[in-house]
């Protein structure tokens, strides 16, 4: 205002002018104070008196002005003096003063939050929500909303049906801006049932005809949110859907900036409820003088709305756009044609021919984009449109962008058998191999290998050339590794190479750019806000420090819940799965395990508690947030290490190591004794041992050998806390002193009532052994099957029900090779280890065994065993949260120790089991895969 | 809420800033300048720009960027609507909204902005109320103020803000009581090469100028109200009455205001009052191209089409054009490649045409894109949707007002593809 000049030196003189009757002068002085009070805090005190006086002025305009200006003076010393006048103004008889004072509370809160709370202004503000004047109500709501934003936990806007009624009444009478505040506030309310939701919707609907677009969009937000609660069978639901379309369309005739925000929101709405705008495709057609940001958004929505009914129109439009001037827009238009082809199957042919027309234009960037999308079309409809390849090949030379080149090379490689001169084409790319971008190099490598596998005779030289280029002359590790893999594959097992390289590829999905359903639901609650513009939840970009409350759509009332999912799915744009997958799993687990989430008991815990703690523990840290009782302290979740799987696996694969003669048929399989503590490390004491389970009791069979020269006495043993609460059930009894070179065999009974702590790996057990010489520590891995309990046979019905409830993703599958036994033998042997056969049937000459087992902590594991002569395959399904990365984890987990431990079993069951049990809460599992089983004993108190 | 406002001219100078909360440094605009640089044209600057601590929401009007700075999650439409309101207010106060005018009236501008927002919350955005608080500058008032030292700040409480009809001030007095309504419709259409309509819709508004004494209560009824199924009303309109009887019932604001805006969607058949015949041909390896446009009336309900202006952005390859119009004047700017032809009235007996040749870059291949023709026109005394006002009645006051209604159809975004 002062053109950048600092006029703070005039402060005293200006303050002198404050006591004037001239309104304009007064206003200007106030304006001056607002700007300079901060730089002259001491002088500003001089102004306080005048403010206090002005707050008593008979003219409400002056009173309001004074209270308004006071709030803008951000000087701590002054704020204290403001409280009294503000309190008076909040109760002023004139609503104009009250509404100004309401905003002033928000200002004051910004300067000194504590002061506002101490002075009880928040309560006064809440009272103003019931004010008789709608403007005061609106401002009070606005002020409270702003304060609430910095206090996400506080329940400032605690809405109840009465206050909602007040707000709805005020909504009709206050200014447009007030309506926005009130509507935004309403959107945070969750009606108690669908009738209340409907009545609110009815009273909000007239706002859709407001001239202010922000009011309209806020009303849309409230309706979209509360609609979630209405049953779809209701007539009113249909009426509401119809009413929503026109205002949204009208938003698009506003200024471009408004259009942009509206379009971003419409994008969300279209994904959530495509039926609203399905007939309004035309309003999204692009005008050539729309700003580019509007054009791109319109294009996006056009694709979302594209369906069989309107695809012809859409394609004609897209083709028109592809001849426009703006390069970015043209590119996106060409991409859009490809997306249409993938989305609307019936239109694929038309899309391809449109793309071919565009290629004929020979406009460089159009051709390149077209080739990139044609590649995607090939991936969606393989073996359907290969006739166009010839046309594509004509344009080979004009491709200069890496993405287009890579796409073209992929096409050539994929259809090498149909392109006579594929080798020549690829060779021409190979000439400048080193100048290509990585993307192209990788594609070229793969394409040539594909070509070689398809036409081995003519292309030997080519493949050798590319392999040497990739492995010897390249610095890029990705390229080199891929080169080596191919090389080794080709040299060792060409058949396998063929299986790997030419494997059938999964079709690409219909739409990859849809917003994930849970996020979409959250974003619907944020319609009209910045979050909706960015399509990100506020927590992703709002400045840190302020916790953001996650909003979610209200649940539909019970009666209509079941109809929800089948209806949304086929409605056009697939909205994907219902977002409630995780809660159901929580419920499932809760039911299965009958979790009792009591606090961990210190001291000797009850057996049940311990078991259940173990269950929770096994399910990983992520679960506690799902079912988390506030008093439940979850053990710190650790990541799953790689060799956990292997070691666990050893146990189970050994179970299946059915030809081995060590195990007795009647009892559980016993691992041969291994040396746990070498004499070198324990001053001459060597301990080897194993774990057994017999008739329901677990024991640790120890063999102690004295390799020292002195006699050993006073043996004692203690376990560190571990995953399943294993603990010695009796003290270690070594009756006689152990003389040099003497060996003694001891069986130490164990129970599972010890305290529980998640270990890494899961079956790690840290043991301390004491004798008269010293205390020694070692750790060992116990085989998991000792924890399989005898009552692990599940009831058939329950088995069936549980099996169905487990989602497919949770399934792990692998094979055991070279197992000569038949179904009966397998079944009886497994039973020996408490893996029970629940049912058996014969399907297509294969024996199917359905197995169940139960761990000491109450977790059930279900399995299906399919036995084919010579090749039984084992399918495991587990009642545990999903672990999507299971497939890739398994081999990794198995690898390092497999060769030595598992001569036969391909992959470990228990590895999978353990992964499933622990994995889901840790998305960063991969990071930890290589970590050594680090092994630090926490202090154990030993009996002296 | 809204933290600060910066006004930036097209050359990138911040010529005005206003802060409603603490001062936000000008440097925040650097992010805006970056975005401005990236965008090829001023119109293409994205309206929402995130910066590490703030969000910049901008509108571009009258060659000025109005950039609002916000810090918390605020509905962006709220901010953008408000910015448009600021522009409208400036225009209302000063006649035009341009950099020199804003600079000349900087004190009034600050006073107005101060009244419009309080701590970022909108305070008074109704032009009626604002004008009562701060009187707009007129030459007479400026002279009087200079002599007497009085000011253009009103010393009255804006009573309207408190009443149930916040949009109307009390104690209005006129000697001539009059109420004028303008029904203005704009056709937005895209016509394809062959002349068929791809999409066409009508954006209609009813603007009113009401100068009536006291507290008049008006009702306005239409011959065919079912055309209005997608409407946005001025807050003064009683929505319930409209829902049940399809009658507009309202106590009008004083002076000029927009009573309602409506939208006749593409699904209804929209009459297209004008057609364009075009023949624009480029040939490969020829440095000459042919150009010919004829404009003619169609579905005008017997009314004359006036104020026709044809503009077209020609492809870059066009160096110059030598054209002869049968009427009106034409210009071609070889730098921006913008062809503009001011046709004037269309005489149905003698259709206006523009013919001639284009000289193209020698040796260059033919342009990739076809020029789109943009059309402006006006038709007086016709609402193309067929909307007609039936009657206007006044209650609550005794006098007999003078009533007037005017119809007009204009081209909005009317584009013909070639």
TrEMBL record, chain A:
GO terms for cellular component: clathrin adaptor complex; cytosol; Golgi apparatus; synaptic vesicle. Residues 669-779 form the Clathrin adaptor alpha/beta/gamma-adaptin appendage Ig-like subdomain domain. The keyword Membrane applies. Residues 545-585, 921-944 are annotated as: Disordered. It is found in: Endomembrane system. GO terms for biological process: determination of left/right symmetry; heart development; intracellular protein transport; kidney development; vesicle-mediated transport. The keyword Acetylation applies. It comes from the Eukaryota. Residues 554-571 have a biased composition (Low complexity). SMART domains: Alpha_adaptinC2 (SM00809), ARM (SM00185), B2-adapt-app_C (SM01020). InterPro entries: AP_beta, ARM-like, ARM-type_fold, Armadillo, B-adaptin_app_sub_C, Clathrin/coatomer_adapt-like_N, Clathrin_a/b/g-adaptin_app_Ig, Clathrin_app_Ig-like_sf. Belongs to the adaptor complexes large subunit family. This is Adaptor related protein complex 1 subunit beta 1.
UniProtKB/TrEMBL annotation, chain B:
One of its GO terms (biological process) is synaptic vesicle endocytosis. It is found in: Golgi apparatus; Cytoplasmic vesicle membrane. It comes from the Eukaryota. Its main location: Golgi. InterPro entries: Adaptor_comp_med_subunit, AP2_Mu_C_sf, AP_mu_sigma_su, Clathrin_mu, Clathrin_mu_CS, Longin-like_dom_sf, MHD. Residues 176-417 form the MHD domain. CDD domains: AP-3_Mu3B_Cterm, AP3_Mu_N. It is a peripheral membrane protein. Keywords: Cytoplasmic vesicle, Golgi apparatus, Membrane, Protein transport, Transport. Belongs to the adaptor complexes medium subunit family. PANTHER family: AP COMPLEX SUBUNIT MU (PTHR10529). This is AP-3 complex subunit mu-2. It comes from Ursus maritimus.
């Amino acid at each position: 205002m002062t053109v950048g000049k600092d006029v703070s030196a005039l402060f005293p003189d200006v303050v002198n002018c404050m006591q004037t009757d001239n309104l304009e002068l007064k206003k200007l002085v106030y304006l001056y104070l607002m700007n300079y009070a901060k730089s002259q805090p001491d002088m500003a005190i001089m102004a306080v008196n005048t403010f206090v006086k002005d707050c008593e002025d008979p003219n409400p305009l002056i009173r309001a002005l004074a209270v308004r200006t006071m709030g803008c003076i951000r000087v701590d010393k002054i704020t204290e003096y403001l409280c009294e006048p503000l309190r008076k103004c909040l109760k002023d008889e004139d609503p104009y003063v009250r509404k100004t004072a309401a905003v002033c509370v928000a200002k004051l809160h910004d300067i000194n939050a504590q002061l506002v709370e101490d002075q009880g202004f928040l309560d006064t503000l809440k009272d103003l929500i019931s004010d008789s004047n709608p403007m005061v109500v609106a401002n009070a709501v606005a002020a409270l909303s702003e304060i609430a934003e910095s206090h996400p936990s506080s329940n400032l806007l605690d809405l109840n049906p009465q206050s909602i009624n007040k707000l709805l009444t005020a909504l009709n009478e206050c200014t447009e801006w007030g309506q926005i505040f009130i509507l935004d506030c309403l959107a945070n309310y969750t009606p108690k049932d669908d009738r209340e939701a409907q009545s609110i919707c009815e009273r909000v609907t007239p706002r859709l005809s407001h001239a202010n677009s922000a009011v309209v969009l806020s009303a849309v937000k409230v309706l979209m949110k509360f609609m979630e609660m209405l049953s779809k069978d209701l007539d009113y639901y249909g009426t509401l859907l119809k009413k929503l379309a026109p205002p949204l369309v009208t938003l698009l005739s506003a200024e471009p900036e408004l259009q942009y925000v509206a379009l971003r929101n419409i994008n969300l709405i279209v994904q959530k409820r495509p039926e609203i705008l399905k007939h309004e495709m035309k309003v999204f057609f692009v005008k050539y003088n729309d700003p580019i940001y509007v054009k791109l958004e319109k294009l996006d929505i056009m694709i979302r709305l594209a369906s069989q009914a309107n695809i012809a129109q859409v394609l004609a439009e897209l083709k028109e756009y592809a001849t426009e001037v703006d390069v970015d827009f043209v590119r996106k238009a060409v991409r859009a044609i490809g997306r249409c082809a993938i989305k609307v199957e019936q239109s694929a042919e038309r899309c391809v021919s449109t793309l071919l027309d565009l290629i004929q234009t020979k406009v460089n960037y159009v051709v390149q984009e077209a080739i990139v999308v044609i590649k995607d079309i090939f991936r969606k409809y393989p073996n359907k449109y290969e006739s166009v390849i010839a046309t594509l090949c004509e344009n080979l030379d004009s491709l200069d962008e890496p993405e287009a080149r890579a796409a073209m090379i992929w096409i050539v490689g994929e259809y090498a058998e149909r392109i006579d001169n594929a080798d020549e084409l690829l060779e021409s790319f190979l000439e400048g191999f080193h100048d290509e971008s990585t993307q192209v190099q990788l594609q070229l490598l793969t394409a040539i290998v594909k070509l070689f596998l398809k036409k081995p005779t003519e292309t030997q030289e080519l493949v050798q050339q590319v392999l040497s280029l990739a492995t010897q002359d390249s610095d890029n590790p990705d390229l080199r590794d891929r080169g080596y893999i191919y090389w080794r594959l080709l040299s060792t097992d060409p058949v396998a190479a063929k299986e790997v390289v030419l494997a059938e590829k999964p079709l690409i999905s219909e739409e990859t750019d849809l917003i994930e359903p849970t996020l979409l639901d959250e974003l619907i609650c944020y319609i009209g806000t910045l979050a909706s513009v960015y399509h990100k939840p506020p927590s992703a970009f709002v400045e840190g420090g302020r916790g953001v409350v996650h909003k979610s759509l209200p649940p539909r009332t019970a009666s209509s819940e079941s109809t929800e999912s089948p209806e949304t799915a086929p409605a056009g744009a697939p909205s994907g799965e219902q977002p409630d997958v995780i809660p159901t799993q929580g419920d499932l687990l809760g039911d299965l395990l009958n979790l009792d989430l009591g606090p961990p008991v210190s001291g000797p815990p009850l057996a049940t508690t311990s078991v259940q703690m173990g269950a929770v523990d096994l399910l990983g840290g992520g679960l506690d947030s799902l079912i988390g009782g506030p008093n439940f302290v979850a053990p710190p979740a650790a990541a799953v290490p790689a060799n956990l799987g292997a070691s666990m696996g050893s146990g189970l694969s050994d179970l299946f190591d059915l030809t081995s003669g060590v195990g007795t048929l009647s009892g559980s399989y016993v691992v041969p004794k291994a040396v746990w503590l070498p004499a070198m490390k324990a001053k001459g004491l060597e301990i080897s041992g194993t774990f057994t389970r017999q008739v329901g009791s677990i024991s640790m069979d120890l063999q102690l050998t004295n390799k020292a020269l002195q006699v050993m006495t006073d043996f004692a043993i203690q376990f560190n806390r571990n995953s399943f609460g294993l603990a010695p059930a009796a003290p270690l009894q070594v009756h006689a002193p152990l003389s040099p070179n003497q060996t003694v065999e001891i069986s130490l009974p164990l129970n599972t009532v010890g305290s529980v702590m998640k270990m890494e790996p899961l079956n790690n057990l840290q043991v301390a052994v004491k004798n008269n010489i010293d205390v020694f520590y070692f750790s060992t891995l116990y085989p998991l099957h000792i924890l399989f309990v005898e009552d692990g046979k599940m009831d058939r019905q329950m088995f069936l029900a549980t099996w169905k409830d487990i989602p497919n993703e949770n399934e792990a599958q692998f094979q055991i090779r070279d197992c000569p036994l038949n179904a009966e033998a397998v079944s009886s042997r497994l039973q020996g280890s408490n893996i029970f056969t629940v049912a058996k049937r014969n399907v297509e000459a294969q024996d199917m065994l359905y197995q169940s087992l139960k761990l000491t902590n109450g977790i059930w594991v279900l399995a299906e065993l399919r036995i084919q002569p010579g090749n039984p395959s084992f399918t495991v399904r587990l009642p545990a949260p999903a672990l999507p990365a299971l497939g890739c984890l398994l081999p990794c987990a198995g690898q390092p120790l497999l060769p030595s431990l598992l001569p036969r079993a391909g992959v470990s069951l228990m590895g999978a089991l353990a992964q499933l049990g622990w994995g889901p809460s840790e998305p960063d599992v991969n990071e930890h895969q290589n970590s050594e089983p680090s092994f630090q004993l926490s202090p154990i108190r030993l009996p002296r | 809420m809204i933290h600060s406002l910066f006004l930036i001219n097209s050359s990138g100078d911040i010529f005005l800033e206003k802060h409603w909360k603490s001062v936000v440094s000008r440097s925040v605009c650097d992010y805006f300048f970056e975005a401005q640089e990236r965008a090829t044209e001023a119109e293409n600057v994205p309206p929402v720009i995130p910066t590490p601590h703030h969000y910049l929401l901008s509108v571009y009007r009258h060659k000025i960027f109005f950039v609002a700075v916000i810090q918390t999650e605020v509905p962006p439409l709220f901010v953008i609507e408000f910015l448009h309101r600021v522009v409208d207010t400036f225009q209302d106060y000063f006649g035009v909204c341009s950099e020199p005018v804003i600079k000349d009236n900087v004190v009034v501008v600050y006073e107005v902005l101060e009244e419009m927002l309080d701590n970022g919350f909108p305070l008074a955005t109704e032009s009626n109320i604002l004008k009562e608080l701060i009187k707009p500058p007129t030459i007479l008032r400026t002279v009087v103020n200079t002599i007497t030292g009085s000011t253009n700040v009103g010393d009255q409480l804006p009573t309207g803000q408190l009443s149930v009809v916040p949009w109307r001030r009390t104690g209005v007095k006129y000697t001539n009581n009059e109420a004028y309504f303008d029904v203005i419709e704009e056709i937005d259409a895209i016509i394809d090469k062959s002349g068929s309509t791809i999409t066409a819709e009508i954006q209609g508004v009813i603007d009113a100028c009401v100068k009536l004494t006291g507290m008049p209560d008006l009702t306005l009824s239409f011959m065919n109200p079912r055309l209005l199924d997608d409407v946005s009303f001025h807050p003064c309109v009683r929505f319930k009455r409209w829902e049940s009887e399809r009658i507009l019932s309202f106590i009008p604001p004083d002076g000029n205001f927009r009573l309602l805006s409506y939208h006749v969607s593409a699904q209804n058949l929209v009459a297209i009052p004008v057609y364009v015949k075009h023949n624009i041909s480029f040939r490969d390896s020829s440095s000459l191209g042919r150009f010919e446009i004829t404009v003619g009336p169609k579905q005008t309900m017997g009314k004359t089409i006036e104020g026709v202006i044809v503009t077209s952005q020609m492809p870059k390859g066009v160096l110059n054009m030598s054209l002869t119009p049968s009427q009106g004047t034409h210009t071609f700017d070889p730098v921006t490649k913008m062809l503009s032809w001011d046709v004037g009235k269309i005489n149905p007996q003698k259709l206006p045409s523009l013919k001639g040749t284009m000289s193209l870059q020698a040796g260059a291949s033919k342009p990739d894109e076809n020029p789109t023709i943009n059309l402006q026109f006006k038709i007086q005394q016709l609402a193309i949707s067929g909307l007609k006002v039936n009657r206007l009645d006044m209650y609550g006051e005794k006098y007999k007002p003078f009533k007037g209604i005017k119809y007009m159809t204009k081209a909005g975004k009317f584009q013909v593809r070639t």
